[in-house]
Design a protein that fits this description.
The longest helix has 22 residues. The chain has two domains: 165 residues, P-loop containing nucleotide triphosphate hydrolases (Rossmann fold), CATH 3.40.50.300; 120 residues, Up-down Bundle (Zinc Finger, Delta Prime, domain 3), CATH 1.20.272. Helix 13 packs across helix 14 and helix 15 runs antiparallel to helix 16. It has 16 helices and five strands. Helix 5 links the parallel strand 2 and strand 3. The radius of gyration is 25 Å and the shape is elongated. With 334 residues, it is of the alpha/beta class. The chain has a five-stranded parallel β-sheet with strand order 2-3-4-1-5, sandwiched between helices.
Amino acid sequence: MTATWIELKQWQPLAAKMLINSLAKQRIAHAYLFEGSRGTGKKDMAIFLAQGLFCRIPENGMPCGECDQCQRIVHGSHPDIHLIEPDGLSIKKDQIKALQEEFSKTGMESKRKTYIINFADKMTVQAANSLLKFLEEPHQSTTAILITEKMHQMLPTILSRCQHVAFHSLSPVLFKERLVLEGVHPTMAALLSKVTNQLNEGIELSSDEWFVQARKIVLKLYEVLKEHPFEAMTRLQSEFLPHFKEKLQIELSLDLFLLIYKDLLYIQTEKVDHVSFPDHLDELQRDALQISTKKLSEQMTTILEAKRHINQNMNTQLLMEQLLLKLQGGSAFV
């Protein structure tokens, strides 16, 4: 689903302002490099820029979004806008040569032509060198938009010929909205926005049965630890350890634990919109009333200590047993 202009301005205010000013003043660079992590709206912004270049009735540089040009661009059917993406694992020289041949012709509907190269860092050396020749002799009516997550893997000579537009990672609140826009359930999006800032990873985790079960197990262990602390060790052996077997999985479980206690703090500071487990809000609100901020801080510190120990190759079973004891007010880590 393509993001709206309102969403793009909210996600990337600096990039949006720069591009709209360029469109309004008709000062368009011959080549742009959109660089930033996955899920930050780079491709959507490229579509918006293309609309601004071709729109029939722009207003102060803003494309209308409704004319036939804007609509064909957003649906990928405009004959003078070409999208290049990896063919398999890479973008090959033949793809760039075909693009050059296409751009040697007059535009079908206007004098202007635009091409978008997504994952530009995946060009082969031959493709990159071929593109470089294209960029060195830019046609006045041609606009190139290169999109990358790994700018350092691209030829410096290509980078030097592009206007760099940086796309910054979204805040957890905005990233949650982006996940929901991509079809992730709001409850799961609330948690995933704290676990990752990579859009594809977030979408994959939302339907990953292991992760869904991991969430349930951690929440249940928290509940048991609070209501029936003597059962916590049994739960640890029967459910937790069989599910969280690898080091990275244990680290994730500790992150999930930490987010539960952060939710209590969010509730105490009246930031309910920031909670990671909104489907357990009633229970968490009751718990937040029964714990002091000082005690909560101590418990969060305990979990962070456990994370440090897991990176020191401490036995995971011993680590988790000591963590549960510590959270109950028992002995510290040894």
